Amino acid sequence: MAKDPSKTEKATPRRRQKAREEGQVARSLDVPISATLLMTFLVLIAYIPFAYKKLVEYFIYIFSNLSKNVPSVSQSEIALITFKIFFFLITPVFLALLITGVLANVIQFGFLLTFKPLMPKLERINPISGLGRIFSRKTLFEIVRNVLKLLVASLIAYFLYVKIFKESASLFFTPVNQQVYLMIEYILMMILFFALLSIPIAVIDFLFRRWEYEENIKMSKHEIKEEQKMYEGNPQIKAAIRRKQRELAMTRMMAEVEKADVVITNPTHFAVALKYEREKNEPAPKVIAKGKDKLAERIIEKAKEHNVSVIQDPPLARALYESCEVGDFIPEQFYQVVAKILAKVYKEKNIKL
C-alpha cells in the first residue's frame, strides 16, 4: 500500500505508545534466529563433553544389563532411565535456546504482551490491499533477503559437501567413535557457519524493520494538531479558561481591598494594599492586592469607596510591588517604614495597637 505523502512528521510519544499497544514494533525475526544459532554452537561446544560422558555411561549400563531376562522389570527400568537421561540432557539446551530467543526479542522492543495483532481486520482480506502488499517495498525486501539466505545456505552446503566428500573414503577405515567425532565436528562447523553468516543478514533486516517502522508511524501535521487538541485541549478554549481564571482572581483580589489597612501608591502608577491581622499574631503585614497603571487606579478608587487610607510613598510602593506577590508577607527590610505608616493610620482612625 502506498504511503500517505502528507505523513512527513516524526511520530509523537503518544503515537508511539499507541502503536506499541497495538503490537506495532520494530522487530526482526532474523535477530533471534541468528542469536539462537550462535548460542546453539556455544552451548554444544561446552555441553557435548558432558553429554558424551553421560551417554557412554547410559549405553554401558544398558548393554551390560541385556543379559538380565526379566522383561517386566528391566524394560520399565530401562524406559525410565532412558527418559531421565534424555530429559536431563535436552532440557538445559532447550532452556538456553528459549532464553536466548526471548532476550533477542526483548532487546529489540522491550517487554510487550498484547493480543491486538491477532484480532481479525477487514483490510487483511481486501483483495486490493492484498495486491498492494504484494508489490510493496516490504515484499521486495523479503525476496532479496530470502535469496540472500538461499545463497548463504548453498555456499555452506557446498563447502561441507566438498570437505566431507574428500574425507568420506577414509571414514570406512576409521573407528566408530572417530566417525562420531567427525560427524559432530561437521555439525558444529555447519551451525557456526550459519550463525556467523546470519549475523549481517540479521543486522540488515533489523535496520530495515526499524526504518520501515518509523515510516509507518509517521504523522501528518494535521494529525499532530488534532492530537494536541485531544490531549492538551483546544488552544482557544485553554486561553479562554486562563482568561476566566484571571478575571476570577482579579475579582477576589479587588474584594480584598476593602479589608486593607492601608494602600500605598506611586501615586497612580503603582498601588499595594496591606493588611496586618494582629489578632492572628501574624509576623508582618500581608499584601492582599497590588496593581499598576489602570489596575492601580481601580485599587485606589476601591480603597476610597470603603474609607481605606491611601498613602503616597512612590519608592515604597514600587519596591513592594516588585518584591511581593499577593498573599506574601512584606520583606523584613520594609518592617520599619511600614510600621510607621500603619502607626499613623491607626492613630488617625483611633485604633489601638
Would you kindly provide a written description of the structure presented here, covering whatever features stand out?
The protein is mainly alpha-helical and 353 residues long. The protein has 2 domains: 25-216, no CATH class; 237-348, name from scop, CATH 3.40.1690.10. It is built from 11 helices and 4 strands, in the order H-H-H-H-H-H-H-H-E-E-E-H-E-H-H. It has helices spanning 13-21, 30-64, 71-109, 127-134, 137-171, 176-216, 221-232, 235-257, 294-305, 314-323, 335-348, and strands spanning 262-265, 270-275, 286-292, 309-312. Strands 3-2-1-4 form a 4-stranded mixed beta sheet, with helices on both faces. Strand 1 (262-265) and strand 2 (270-275) form a beta hairpin. Helix 2 (30-64) packs antiparallel against helix 3 (71-109) and helix 5 (137-171) packs antiparallel against helix 6 (176-216). The longest helix is centred in the middle third of the chain and has 41 residues, at 176-216. The radius of gyration is 42 Å and the shape is elongated. The N and C termini lie far apart (84 Å). Mean pLDDT is 79; it is low at 69-73.
